[in-house]
Specification:
36 residues
């Protein structure tokens, strides 16, 4: 499990994000970047 996945699994994890930022927005950025 990555640190990001762990953060998402915590209760009320959205409360740790900056105001106006959501996991949906972060996921769109993260999954748009590859390791290659």
């Amino acid at each position: 499990m990555t640190p990001y996945e762990k953060l998402k699994s915590l209760p009320n994890s959205e409360s740790f994000l900056k105001p106006g930022l959501s996991f949906q927005e972060i996921d769109a950025i993260a999954y748009g970047i590859t390791d290659s």
